[in-house]
Amino acid sequence: MHEKYKQRLLNRLSAAWPVCRLCPVDVEELDAKTWMVTYRDAQTGEISRSGLYKAELRRQEQNMRAWSVVPGTRSAPPAQEVPVVELPGDVSEPDALLVAEKMESMVRVLGAFVDTLVLNVYQTRADLEVIKGRLESNLIDELTLLKEQAQNDEEPVPSRFVFGGAPLLMTAKGGEGFQWILRNKLLSLAINKGSKMKLIAQVRCSSEYLWGVRDLGKVMHEVFGFLVTIFGQRLKLQVSACDLAVDVVGFHLGTLKDVKRHFVSRAQLTEERPLSEDGMIDGPDGIKQRWGRITGLPFGARNGRLSALIYDKTHEIKYHSPEKAWFHDLWREVRDAETGEPLWEEGTDVLRLEIRWKRPGLNEVKGELHGEEFHGIDDAFDLEDHLAGLWSYAVGRLGGGEDGLPDGWLRYVVPTDDTNRSRWPVHPDWQVIQGAFQEREQLEVSAYEREEQEREELLQLVDEELAARPFSTDKKKGRRPGRRIVSAAHPVVPESFTLKPYIRQRKREKNMLRLIAQIAGLLITLEAWRQPSHEERDVFSDLSDTVSFAFNHVEEYYDDKERDFEREVKKRRVLLSIPNKSSQAA
């Protein structure tokens, strides 16, 4: 730390706590959010060292300013003592481990859910055994005609298949081994002819659909019900890919040095980068930056069994996906459980951690659920029960594994002198992230449910054989009388909150801005070409005149092409999945 900056910082510390008996005499940066401060006791002369959050200094300075301007204001009174994290007396160097153990994390979870979901569709026999699928001939003919029409029109063509109130559009081309691809804003459906392979279709649910519903069970039933109308009743849905996403505020990546040292993972990309003796790899596989600022950290091969990506979600929305500004509306709804204050303010950076599971990785996971062992996650309807387990496998369990040591495929740690990095303790900020998909108490049980629980407990005492049944896991899960546990991301957005109107509004705003910008640019170009010569002094560029010129020529264009403007608008609304007034009201 530069001496001039250090002296200025010491002066700020002294001014923030003017009556504190601990006088700051030295300060060092411990990490991106913490200082290690050396104090001298004004009465005893004793020297001590402790950690101090940078945010605490800013908060104290704000309180001091408020009280100096308006004494007795309702804002919190300035603290008289420095909120230090005390360390044992004689510490020669900043002990990051001890500091981390005593510090509270400033990280808060804004949302946690499935961000990408890809499902394989198979046909089955009556006994649910998967068979080589084959589409009905009339369905093949219908899809073939739709694709030919899309190719002739050189644009997507609406089909009779409707999901979420919007028709699926047939595209002109297939892809990835599928003959036909249909999609709307909520999902895309790729279809095979069948016969040669068992896989007849694949469904990809959009982020907009998943976050709008925020109920995986409901998503599965809606998608299955839709597919039944196309392929018949005997279907099996298998999870092909699943991305779990957690949005957090207050998590700062720090410098390049911090990133490479604090992140350890078991990701192995190539033979040139093998796992070390302790099975861990330092840092991410690459670092994405914009203007010197870290914006993304990938871990593992993108199409590997398991990979991860940490990135600045606010940055991604601003520069790459402005139509996803509806995430801001979702984040605004999240409140602190104790104070009720919103956890996110406009302009605050939000970091996202995505854990990406592929089919090979889902095949390999194993463990115990509801008292029964499992090996592999195959049925899509079982996925909801495994979300917490998939998340814990990737980022580690709160409290570590059965041996008490930290576990997890990827961790943000506090480096120590231990040469075995697998034993490095988990950073407090990462512990908050580890608990993002944990089960939490939420719903009160009814009187009927309470009676049923009591009856089950009695039967367990009478007959030991019933101990292995699902309801016997109540004790293992630590349930308290009068409550039942549901699997949910926390903090929970109110169930009454619906994203649909916000998604429509944000998409409309961003698309209108883009179109107006494009029209403005085209009008300038049109006017530039319209003027026969730059030297003609009697021709002046006037916006209304240019618009009038464009209007007359566009009308002529539609007349020549025998196209009706109103009919074209209605067609385009269908292609853009823009709902009409009746569907919006519904």
DSSP summary: helix tally: 17
Q: Which parts are unreliable, with pLDDT below 50 for 5 consecutive residues or more?
A: 69-76, 86-94, 270-280, 440-449, 470-489
The portion of residues assigned to helices is 25-40%
> Structural class, judged by helices and strands?
alpha+beta
- Strand tally is 22
Compute the separation of the termini in Å. 61 Å
The percentage of residues in β strands lies in: 15-25%
Keywords:
586 residues, alpha+beta, 4 domains, 24% strand
Q: If you had to describe this structure to a student in words, what would you say it looks like?
A:
By secondary structure, the chain is of the alpha+beta class. The protein folds into 4 domains: 3-103; 125-233, no CATH class; 244-437, no CATH class; 500-585, no CATH class. Helix content is 35%, strand content 24%. The chain is built from 17 helices and 22 strands. The chain has helices spanning 3-16, 54-69, 96-102, 137-153, 207-213, 216-231, 256-262, 313-319, 326-332, 359-364, 383-395, 428-434, 447-462, 500-530, 543-561, 565-575, 581-585; strands at 22-31, 34-41, 47-53, 85-86, 108-123, 157-163, 166-170, 180-183, 187-191, 199-205, 235-249, 263-265, 281-282, 288-290, 293-299, 306-312, 350-358, 366-369, 372-375, 410-412, 439-444, 483-487.
